[in-house]
Design brief:
The protein is of the alpha/beta class and 421 residues long. It is 34% helix and 23% strand. The chain binds nicotinamide-adenine-dinucleotide (NAD).
């Protein structure tokens, strides 16, 4: 089997989670990568990743502080898992070296940053994959198959509502800083990707944007019981972050979304909600509706048809889509090529989905298939999130095109200036 020499660039929380994904793929006998380097200017982080890699693969990758140090190591592909501020400079540098790149979401910190990577990628023939994990969830694959099969008829309306978070820090300080990401971008790009995955291209949005919680609290920094940390990796860094800090990024958006199909979406992403948490992702069509579970929960979809008289939330969902099959890696990792539910601890689900991302990246590099979430799609997700923020500033509906082509950029201007873009 052809092997691809790989470096993980950015060895913080997601860098470690990617390592666990690569190890999961390796254990399943499906990995086409050799991890040759761990790159991070914070030596502790790079060494931590390299030490764990040595346990997983029996070989310790080289530890380097700077991407330029990867050149003598013969790297062919990089996995960029740094904070978003660095994605475009590292992405462009990787492409200039002739390396394939998988880049964590948001693929760039602003639309202009994404466009810089797109310019560098043009005509180079290299693979650029966006590590967007939510759509790769087997349950979201099944939902897409149900939509494609017309089980609820023509989709007319989507509800995507999430409320929660109160005044708690979301994982890290940088996620609350406009010049480093902001929660509405950090989480919003996932949901933007899911909306387009299910409903097709978004054409415009009209949004109200708020900053409800100007000071956020970090329990681990205050010596209190740390918050639940995705895949258990973040607590050690959270202990070093301040207990309370002022934020610069907005934390709630309430929007109407228009799709090219003529369908409409109602979108609420409120990270400052106190009291009852809310999750609802619903799609209403001309024949029925789908009630979709949390991404990565493994919970089943509920299908309603015939004015609610027919309710299906079990294995009979699969009978409706006889041609539905998960790809080889997903089926191997999740234990079946036709799934309507799964039940793993979160950390295991997380690494399986990242393993699927790596398998997709390798397959695209080896010319087996196109990449699943490409640079254009990753850029669209960034543009959808910023279209909401731009609409909030402009006080009017904003089209995705005017955000993608940087005609509308009042919100992003100071971020771009800070990046030197
Ligand atoms: N898909 C998901 O579910 C998911 C979940 C969490 C994070 N993420 C994404 O992963 C990325 C990283 O997030 P995180 O939570 O790991 O952040 P983090 O702060 O835990 O880690 C970032 C790491 O990048 C390193 N870094 C910074 N500049 C670098 C450079 N020039 N070269 C190499 N390393 C550099 C930092 O030192 C740090 O170790 C973000 O884009 C985030 O949105 C995705």
């Amino acid at each position: 089997m052809e092997r691809i020499p790989l470096a993980i660039v950015g060895c913080g929380g997601m860098g470690h989670r990617h390592l666990y994904g690569l190890a999961e793929l390796h254990r399943a006998g499906l990995s086409r990568f050799d991890l040759v380097a761990a790159c991070d200017p914070v030596a502790d982080n790079a060494n931590s990743l390299a030490d764990q890699a040595a346990e997983f693969f029996g070989r310790r990758p080289a530890v380097v502080a700077d991407m330029a140090d990867l050149v003598p190591l013969g790297v062919a592909a990089v996995d960029i898992t740094t904070t978003p501020r660095h994605h475009h400079t590292l992405g462009v540098t990787a492409l200039e070296h002739g390396w394939h790149a998988m880049i964590e979401k948001p693929v760039g910190l602003t639309v202009r940053a994404c466009n810089r990577i797109r310019q560098a990628a043009a005509h180079r023939g290299l693979v650029v994959s966006v590590a967007e994990n939510y759509r790769r969830d087997p349950i979201n694959r099944l939902a897409r198959a149900l939509l494609d099969a017309g089980i609820i008829g023509t989709p007319r309306f989507m509800v995507h509502n999430t409320v929660g978070g109160g005044n708690q820090m979301l994982i890290s300080v940088w996620r609350h800083m406009k010049d480093q990401s902001g929660v509405l971008l950090d989480v919003g790009v996932h949901y933007a990707d899911m909306m387009e995955y299910f409903m097709g291209p978004i054409t415009s949005v009209y949004a109200q944007v708020r900053l409800h919680e100007p000071v956020r609290h970090n329990p681990a920094g205050a010596g209190e019981e740390p918050q639940a940390s995705p895949a258990g990796v973040y607590t050690r860094w959270q202990k070093q972050m301040p207990a309370d800090f002022e934020v610069t990024a907005e934390d709630a958006v309430y929007a109407t979304v228009n799709f090219a199909s003529g369908a409409v979406g109602q979108y609420i992403e409120d990270h400052a909600g106190h009291g009852k948490g809310l999750w609802s992702r619903l799609i209403y069509g001309s024949l029925g509706s789908l009630d979709l579970p949390h991404d990565r929960s493994g919970h089943p979809i509920t299908l309603y048809r015939e004015q609610g008289r027919q309710v299906v939330d079990d294995g009979r969902l699969l009978d409706l889509v006889p041609d539905f099959h998960l790809n080889r890696a997903t089926a191997t990792l999740f234990g079946g090529d036709r799934l309507w539910r799964y039940d793993f601890p979160f950390a295991e689900t997380d690494r399986k989905l990242i393993a699927v991302e790596y398998d997709d990246f390798a397959g695209a590099i080896l010319g087996e298939h196109p990449i699943d979430v490409d640079l254009d799609q990753g850029t669209r997700s960034v543009a959808v999130s910023y279209a909401m923020l731009e609409s909030g500033v402009a006080g009017r509906p904003v089209t995705l095109d005017e955000v993608l082509n940087e005609q509308v950029d009042a919100y992003q201007r100071e971020i771009n200036e800070g990046l030197g873009l």
